[in-house]
Design goal:
about 400 residues, alpha/beta, binds guanosine-5'-diphosphate, binds magnesium ion
């Protein structure tokens, strides 16, 4: 069972033993206080037993454990997805064994399939000859998707060049698929921790609500499963609730946590995190950052300052500047990448909320316009719903008609 005792649990345990000793002392007539002695000894025992059982991590009994199986760890505030109302619940056996990563990816990308691939397919289904009319319709459709104008034209030109060999809807879609895969393949590069860098410092940036905090929790969860020791620093000091949210997840995934107070200087929190990572001998430090600031000071300047502070203390840090992007924003994500990359030199991207978006085609635009590795994709709110980005499986899932 993946449950860690918290301070709260230990206090309850200690209390339960205190009551047990009171019970023993009372049965041996060793309680010298008349007030304590007046209480029947069975009551001490009952309280001890109740407290002890209460602190056991048993689903349905423990106050902070859900009564459903704990393998899947949902995030606290599910965002609204476009699931049809009245959908039948998944069978119990399915929930226990769980879908495979491929099934999850296919399901996660089903909305993007409809919003991107189905639109292109529809063009070819209207006519079987690749004439001028169809080509201009394709051009218009591609520009209307979320991949961005530049990438739309690049894709269009490739198809135009291959026009002679395209003899029907299937070969047209297959040509587009090949091109998309070629674009995405160039950005496939998993986040691998080098053995000679310790602590490996990951600074996570992105606008508010993009999914930074939950992505940090998911990455920490992955790293912990790989046997790494992780410390998380709460550099988003804008709201106290954001710090608490991160602390909750750090506890939940078993990562060490460096807490800041609301309004603290983000770069000094990052510095404290680095200091803690070094002195406590952690493998990885993950730093959360703000998507906006208390002061009118420029966010990018603040993030650059954090970068400088880290590099000064530990030359080379941060080793990864991970930009978290929300797929539901469509083409805005391209603009965000440009801004963060110009300011910070982004070294990796995590694209979140693909499961809730029909605009996931934006990943093709990002991959085409920026030479930045795509490290992760977020396809849901469970801890395991962050997958390393693999171009081939992504494209397979994207073109899956489900
Ligand atoms: N459906 C879905 N929701 C996500 C995903 N990643 C993050 N979220 C949700 O997005 C919301 C904002 O996330 P949060 O981590 O607080 O964003 P932050 O402001 O950048 O730290 C939360 O409700 C998360 O549960 C994802 O991959 N899929
Ligand atoms: Mg946050």
């Amino acid at each position: 069972m993946n449950y860690r005792f918290s301070t709260h649990d230990y206090v309850i345990f200690i209390l339960s033993y205190a009551f047990f000793f009171l019970y023993l002392a009372d049965t041996q007539s060793m309680l010298s206080f008349p007030l304590l002695h007046a209480i029947p000894s069975w009551l001490y025992l009952a309280v001890a037993v109740v407290l002890n059982v209460w602190a056991l991590p048993v689903p349905g009994i423990h106050p902070r454990l859900p009564s459903r199986p704990p393998e899947r760890t949902p995030l606290p505030s599910p965002s609204v997805t476009e699931e049809p109302a009245g959908k039948a619940p998944e069978p119990e056996e399915k929930a226990l064994s769980g879908p495979t990563p491929e099934e999850k990816l296919g399901k996660g990308l089903s909305k993007t399939h409809k919003g991107f691939i189905d639109r292109i397919s529809a063009v070819f289904k209207r006519s079987s000859t690749l004439d001028q009319n169809l080509l201009s319709e394709l051009e218009e459709t591609l520009v209307g998707t979320d991949i961005g104008v530049r990438t739309a034209y690049a894709l269009f030109e490739t198809i135009q060049k291959k026009a002679a060999s395209i003899d029907g809807p299937e070969s047209a879609i297959s040509a587009i698929r090949t091109e998309i895969e070629a674009i995405l393949e160039k950005r496939e590069s998993e986040l691998v921790l080098p053995l000679d860098i310790k602590p490996y410092v990951i600074m996570v940036a992105g606008v508010n609500g993009s999914g930074k905090t939950t992505t940090i929790a998911k990455i920490a969860h992955r790293l912990k499963n790989e046997g790494k020791s992780v410390v998380i620093a709460s550099g988003d000091t804008f709201r106290a609730a954001a710090i608490e949210q991160l602390e909750h997840w750090a506890n939940r995934v078993g990562a060490d946590f460096v807490k800041a107070h609301e309004g603290a200087d983000p770069s000094s929190v990052a510095f404290d995190g680095l200091q803690a990572a070094i002195s406590r001998n952690h493998d990885v430090l993950i730093i959360d950052t703000a998507g906006r600031l208390h002061t009118r000071e420029n966010l990018m300047e603040e993030l650059k300052k954090t970068q400088r502070v880290l590099d000064k203390k530990f030359p080379g840090a941060p080793h990864e500047i991970l930009l978290v992007l929300d797929a539901t924003l469509g083409q805005n994500a391209i603009e965000q990448t440009r801004q963060f990359n110009n300011a910070l030199g982004v070294t990796g991207i995590a694209l979140t909320k693909l499961d809730g978006s029909s605009k996931g085609g934006v990943i093709v635009g990002i991959a085409n316009e920026f030479e930045i590795p795509i490290r992760f994709i977020g396809i849901g709110e469970d801890m395991d719903d962050l997958q390393p980005f693999h171009a081939r499986s992504f494209v397979n899932a994207l073109f899956l008609d489900n």
